[in-house]
Amino acid sequence: MNLLVFAVLASAAVLAALGVILSKSAIRSALSLVLNFMLLAILYFTLHSETLGVLQVVVYTGAIMVLFLFVIMLLSTQGNINLTESRDVKKIVGGLAGISLAALIGVQIYLPLASVPAPQFHAPQPIGPSYGAPEPLGLALFTRYGYPFETVSLLLMIGIVGSIMLAKRRVR
Amino acid sequence: MTGVPLIGYLALSILMFCIGAVGVVIRRNPIVIFMCIELMLNAANLAFLSFARYQPWKPAVGQIPTVNAYDVRGQVMVVFVMAVAAAEVAVGLGILMAIFRLRDRVDVDDLNTLSG
Amino acid sequence: MKSVWDWILDHQLALAIVKAIVWILPIFVVMPLTIWLERRLLGWMQDRLGPNRVGPFGLLQPVADGAKLFFKEEILPKGIDLLSYILAPAIMLIPPLTIGAVVPFAAPNSPLAILTPVSDINVGVLYVMAMSSIGAYGLVLAGYSGNNKYSLMGGLRASAQLISYELAMGTSIACVAMAVGTLKVSSIVSAQQTSFYGIPNVWIHNWTIFSPFGFLAFVIFLICMVAETNRPPFDLPEAENELVAGYHTEYSSMKFASFYMGEYLGMLVFGTVLASLFLGGYDFLPIDWKMMALHNSGTAPFANFMERITIDFGPVFLLAKAVGLVVFYIWIRATLPRLRYDQLMNLGWKVLLPAATGNLILISAWIVTTTQYGVGAGWGLVFAVFVIAAIVVTLYRRQKKQTSPQFEARTIRMVQLKPHVEEAVDQGSDPTNAEVVPS
Questions:
Q1: What is the pLDDT averaged over residues C52-64?
Q2: Residue C401: is it exposed, middle or buried by C-beta count within 10 angstroms (0-12/13-18/19+)?
Q3: Is C12 helix (H, G, I), strand (E, B) or coil?
Q4: Which among A58, A122, A158, B11 is least surrounded, fewest beta carbons within 10 Å?
Q5: Given a cut of 80, is residue C433 above it in pLDDT?
Q6: Taking CA atoms, what residue in C is nearest to A132?
Q7: Beta carbons of C189 and C281 less than 8 angstroms apart
Q8: What gap in Å lies between CA C349 and CA C164, rounded to an integer?
Q9: What is the average per-residue pLDDT within C61-86?
């Protein structure tokens, strides 16, 4: 039963991912990606990381993809911009390379990891919040991973400043 | 989810990653290329989370496990990936808008002014 | 009957469905009433009647409107993107129907407690944020699919507005979550049932809005909520005098009705969220009736009666708070003109977001000082911050006044006046027969 649910979710996610690269219009690609991210959020829930599942929806579908849609729509209002694909020289080569890459990685990891058992907490459950709750995650972020956390915040700051500088119209 | 082997999640992750990589190679619209990069990052996130969930979990003997006992390295990594992806998208889309302002056609193959 | 109920209690899925229906149905009952209320109240505020023909006081007007919309012809414009055209109204209904899942509507000791909340997840507040952000897709897709430039601009405005105001909203929610120390909505509500500021033996409840930080967060959340639900004065995505009807220009019949319904459902559901986060949720009044009866025994019968009512009629009070909020929405709709686009962005990014972030920093400083040095130090900190803020604001005002005198009066003048007339205008007097020289 669980396997069936997983199979449905996973195949839908793969189809959505294929939709991203195969659809003609950029907006369809973006919508496929949104669908893929929502399915990923559900898969995160099945992995018991509910905080990250909700964060996935907030960050990716709520912010990043809306930004993508915003830019696509903004560009399509500004006159006749050619956003369609013109030639397909590399498509076959690229597809073959992708399939071979997948096969290569798959062969590499299948043998050592095929027999990994399903997770079970064979020891007593910890007291308090569960594995995917925000508390353990926040605790780790602010204590053991404090330095990388601050670095990432610095990176985000630089990103904000950079995008403002790029987007600003220069007044002559 | 019980009953699903680790290899199932990993297969999904690999497929998504490869689809993203193929997309970066074959598409010529920079916005779609950005989306494909997001797809690859998310494939990596899925791999992180599934490994984090499926690793054997053994608290020290005789110790009462608390919240600290969870191994949250995978989840922390995913948080960082999300933050970096957000920064990347902000800057990347800013660059795209700047390019659009200079020329009315964004085909990555046409952006070769710097190649001499 | 008993056996059916037992069967439902035994089956998680059935129980969840029952819970969801119990949550959704009252909202759907109240929704037409709020539509009627809005039109009548607006009529009263604008000195006209409003709908009063159908039924007593026009109460059946929403029903008549719904029937009319249901039987209208469905028009599909040419050149639309059919998939997104059909998806958009459906997506618009997702946030109002899903957000309520984490909002509890009855106290844990009431008979209804088993039915609420639908799912008490430990990331409840984040879930509210996530679901409300999905609403942006409805607007964007509706704007994109209509094959209409005005719709597209409405969709663009909507996405920019939602992204901007979600930030401030999330930060103000984070203030509450940080002060309470949890992301569970039910815990946030029950934390507001404790005594005022943690002082023992006080019969006032500690609603979030009573603390200074909580009040600031409440104001920010309220403004952002108006922006999130696209209500006036933040209804730029559907500004009728600029964009026809914005993103839903090309919609008709039931598809338009679902946009309309989504707006009112969203207002009500966001109202319940706001009531839960800031106004004590299902609590009737911020009064601990038991403690009141202990303090002066003369009021004991009244207090016991009120406590009974408070516990038994929790859902009614929650809905009443939401409706009160809708009345507030209508009031500001009748009072304030629509913002300009740059004013909207300035308000979101330069006022609300810094205020919410400052509030967050203050709360964290408060938590650190009170846990390290006690409550007195915390209040000292608040006082110091207030004094410094007052000084900075005063200095800034004075600086601004000195640097740009009468800036606006000069910029709007389109024609050149004679020197003496100009002087008179600058000094504030009104030259009645000023001679105008074309420049």
A1: 80
A2: exposed
A3: helix
A4: A122
A5: no
A6: C122
A7: yes
A8: 7
A9: 80
Predicted structure pTM score: 0.82
Chain-centroid distance, C-alpha A39: 10
Pairing state between β C436-437 and C416-417: antiparallel
Q: Measure the CA–CA gap between A151 and A154, rounded to whole angstroms.
A: 5
Q: Is the CA virtual torsion A123, A126, A132, A138 positive or negative? A: negative
* Residue A13, min C-alpha distance to chain C (Å): 18
ipTM here = 0.82
How far is A25 from A84, CA to CA, in rounded Å?
7
Question: Given CB atoms, is C140 within the 8 Å cutoff of chain A?
Answer: yes
- Residue C27: CB atoms within 10 A of its CB come to 20
Considering all CA atoms of chain B, what is the largest pairwise distance in Å, rounded to the nearest integer? 68
Tell me the domain boundaries of chain B.
Answer: 29-57+72-108
Average pLDDT, chain B: 78
Residue pLDDT, tens place only, B27-81: 778 888 888 999 999 999 998 888 887 776 555 555 555 555 567 788 888 889 9
For residue C205, the cross-strand partners are C195
Among A60, A72, A136, the residue with its CB nearest the CB of B70 is A136
Q: Which two tokens stand for residue B16?
A: 């998504």
User: What value does the CA radius of gyration of chain B take, rounded to a whole number of Å?
Assistant: 20
State the sign of the Cα–Cα–Cα–Cα dihedral B30, B34, B35, B37. positive
Buried b (16+ CB within 10 A) or exposed e, C166-181: bbbbbbbbbbbbbbbe
Three-state secondary structure call for residue C120: coil
Q: Residue C438: its pLDDT value, please?
A: 52
b/e code C249-265 from CB counts within 10 Å (16+ = b)? bbbeeebbbbbbbbbbb
Cβ atoms of B59 and A122 closer than 8 Å: no
Q: Where do runs of H (alpha helix) occur along C181-279?
A: 185-191, 212-228, 240-243, 253-278
The alpha carbon torsion through B87, B90, B96, B100 (nearest 10 deg) reads: -160
Range 48-107 of A in CB contact (< 8 A) with B: 48-49, 51-52, 55-56, 59-60, 63-64, 67-68, 71-72, 74-75, 78-86, 88, 90-91, 93-95, 97-99, 101-102, 105-106
Report chain C's mean pLDDT, rounded to a whole number.
Answer: 79
DSSP line for C127-176: HHHHHHHHHHHHHHHHHHHT--HHHHHHHHHHHHHHHHHHHHHHHHHHHH
Point out the residue among A29, A122, A160 whose CB comes nearest to the CB of B32.
Answer: A29
What are the residues whose beta carbons fall under 8 Å from the beta carbon of C234, sequence distance 6 or more?
Answer: C161, C165, C226, C227, C338, C339, C344
Contact B54, A123 (CB under 8 A): no
Compute the nearest-CA separation of C190 from chain A (Å).
18
Average pLDDT of the residues in C209-238? 83
